[in-house]
Each structure stands twice: as structure tokens, then as C-alpha cells.
């Protein structure tokens, strides 16, 4: 019993010291700001563009940020694409949504459409990961005859059942994430436990820094509460569609991808055997090859 007592005291002291350091030391530094694009309602979207060639727009998931994509960007640029990627509203360096504003797939789809118009992107292809794939399905751009193709990567779809009403992300989570050393370790452990994949250290560090930015966790909580994949109806998407899905995906089941490929008339399913949900980070080359081979086959 005495050993347990001293272990408990040691933990209390350690957490107290880390808490004090968390108040003194600066939080992890977020990545640099890109180009800020302002939408008609004043929403500011942080964007990045790289490369020359056919335009491709990448849409990240939930929570996520533009920092989900650097490896994929480099792979696509190397294959001759001009890639634009961005922080969705509520994350990274983009504006937070106001109180009472919707945090739905549909609201994000409308922002995607407007962003493409405001930036003057000509007939871009769309690539969306996870929640980002649902955003594409909710967008008008996916239904634009001038859109060359869309790629749904481990994407949510109408066959996915989810109950986000009980998700709780509050002050304790943010406090723990902000603790020096321990916060980084817990962030990595949580991501590892949630997704089950080996992921780049730089992405873990970026996630921690971005989620500590004001309003990010609140956006995550609201999106998880309002996500309704069953509300999506991709059956009217006539744009050539690539569905890439890992067979070992524990977040969005592989069957969701199979269902998407069946519902979208011009869809091709590319299963990645033994791959999980984080394939833009873990299987970048395979993803880039699948996208570019699909594009050149059209």
C-alpha cells in the first residue's frame, strides 16, 4: 500500500509540474500560413498551391487540416499536377464558424464550391479523404460536367452508420494535449489507438498544434455531432469517380467504399489490400499512382 501511495504522489507531482510548464511554455507552433482566400460571407480560408499542370483540389477529413496532405501533394506534383489544398473552415488558419452555424457535410460542400470559384480554378479534379470525401459528394462541383474526375479516399458514404451525438471533446482534452511531453505522447497514443496505423511523426505534431488553436476542438465536436452520411445521395454524380479504400479500414469500413462504387454510375473501386484508414499518410505512392492512372485512363 505504501508503494501505491508514493506512486500516486509521484503522479500528482508530475502532472502538477507539467501543468505549470504548460502555462509557462509556448504551445506547439502551428505550420506557416498559406494564401488566405475570403469568401462572400467573410469566411477566410487558408490555402496552399504547388506544381504545374491539371488542377487538383484536396479536401481533408475530420478533424484534420491542410497538414494531412504534404506527402500526397509531393507525389501528385511529381506526376505533373497543380495541387491546391486548404484548411477547412473551423481548422488550422481558416475562420471558425459562428455560433449556430451548421457544421454539416453540406455546409462544407457549399464552401468548397465557392472556394473553387473565388480562386478561379478551372475544372479541377477533386480528391477527398474520409469526411472530405463526403464533402465532395455534397458538392455541386462533383456534378459539374466540366469536372474531369473525383477521387473518394476512405470516404464516408450513405452506407455508413454513425452516432456522433455522444462525442465529448472538452476542456480536459485540450488541457491534456497542451501538457509538454505528456501531451505529445498522449496525442500520438490516442491517434495510434484510434486508427491503428503507423503515421509520420510530423503529422502527429501538426495535429497537436492545430487542435490546440482556439475553436478547433469545438469544430471537431460539432462536426462529429452533425455528421449524417446517410443524408448523402451520390447516385446523380455522373463524373468519372475513383473510389480508393483500404480493406482493413477500421474507421470507415471497406463495405462503405464498395457501396459508393455501386451507387455512383461511373465509379471504379480500387481496394488497397491490408491498408487502414490513414492511407494518404501511410500509402502515399499507391494513392498517387491510383489517382494518376485513373486520370490518364479517361
Task: Kindly describe this structure.
The chain is of the alpha/beta class and 298 residues long. The protein has eleven helices and eight strands. An eight-stranded mixed sheet has the order 1-2-4-3-5-6-7-8, with helices on both faces. About 8% of the residues have low confidence. It is globular, with a radius of gyration of 20 Å. α2 crosses α11 and α3 crosses α4. The N and C termini lie far apart (70 Å). Helices cover 42% and strands 14% of the residues. The chain has a single domain, classed as Alpha/Beta hydrolase fold, catalytic domain (Rossmann fold, 3-Layer(aba) Sandwich), CATH 3.40.50. β3, α2 and β4 form a beta-alpha-beta unit.
Radius of gyration: 20 Å
CATH architecture label name:
3-Layer(aba) Sandwich
Widest sheet: strand order?
Answer: 1-2-4-3-5-6-7-8
Give the end-to-end Cα distance, rounded to a whole number of Å: 70 Å
Q: What is the share of helical residues? A: 40-55%
Per the CATH scheme, the topology name is Rossmann fold
Order of helices and strands: HEEEHEHEHEHHHHEHEHH
**Mean pLDDT score:** 85
What number of domains?
1
Describe the structure concisely.
The protein has 298 residues and is of the alpha/beta class. It is built from 11 helices and 8 strands.
Amino acid at each position: 500500500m505504501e508503494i501505491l501511495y508514493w506512486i500516486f504522489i509521484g503522479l500528482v507531482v508530475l502532472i502538477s509540474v507539467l501543468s505549470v510548464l504548460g502555462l509557462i511554455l509556448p504551445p506547439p507552433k502551428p505550420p506557416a500560413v498559406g494564401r488566405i482566400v475570403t469568401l462572400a460571407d467573410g469566411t477566410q480560408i487558408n490555402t496552399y498551391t504547388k506544381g504545374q499542370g491539371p488542377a487538383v483540389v484536396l479536401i481533408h477529413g475530420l478533424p484534420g487540416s491542410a497538414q494531412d496532405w504534404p506527402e500526397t501533394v509531393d507525389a501528385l506534383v511529381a506526376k505533373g499536377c497543380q495541387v491546391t489544398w486548404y484548411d477547412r473552415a473551423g481548422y488550422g488558419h481558416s475562420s471558425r464558424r459562428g455560433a449556430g452555424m451548421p457544421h454539416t457535410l453540406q455546409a462544407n460542400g457549399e464552401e468548397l464550391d465557392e472556394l473553387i470559384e473565388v480562386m478561379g480554378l478551372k475544372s479541377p479534379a477533386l480528391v477527398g479523404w474520409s469526411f472530405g470525401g463526403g464533402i465532395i459528394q455534397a458538392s455541386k462541383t462533383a456534378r459539374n460536367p466540366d469536372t474531369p474526375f473525383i477521387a473518394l479516399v476512405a470516404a464516408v458514404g450513405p452506407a455508413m452508420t454513425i452516432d456522433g451525438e455522444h462525442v465529448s471533446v472538452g476542456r480536459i482534452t485540450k488541457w491534456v494535449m497542451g501538457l509538454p511531453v505528456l501531451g505529445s505522447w498522449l496525442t500520438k497514443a490516442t491517434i495510434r489507438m484510434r486508427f491503428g496505423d503507423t503515421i509520420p511523426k510530423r503529422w502527429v505534431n501538426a495535429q497537436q498544434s492545430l487542435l490546440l488553436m482556439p475553436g478547433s476542438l469545438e469544430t471537431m465536436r460539432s462536426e462529429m455531432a452533425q455528421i449524417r452520411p446517410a443524408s448523402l445521395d451520390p447516385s446523380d454524380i455522373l463524373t468519372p469517380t475513383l473510389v480508393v479504400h483500404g480493406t482493413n479500414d477500421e474507421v470507415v469500413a471497406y463495405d462503405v467504399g464498395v457501396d459508393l462504387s455501386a451507387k455512383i454510375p461511373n465509379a471504379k473501386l480500387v481496394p488497397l489490400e491490408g491498408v487502414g484508414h490513414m492511407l494518404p499518410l501511410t500509402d502515399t505512392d499507391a494513392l498517387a499512382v491510383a489517382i494518376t492512372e485513373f486520370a490518364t485512363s479517361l
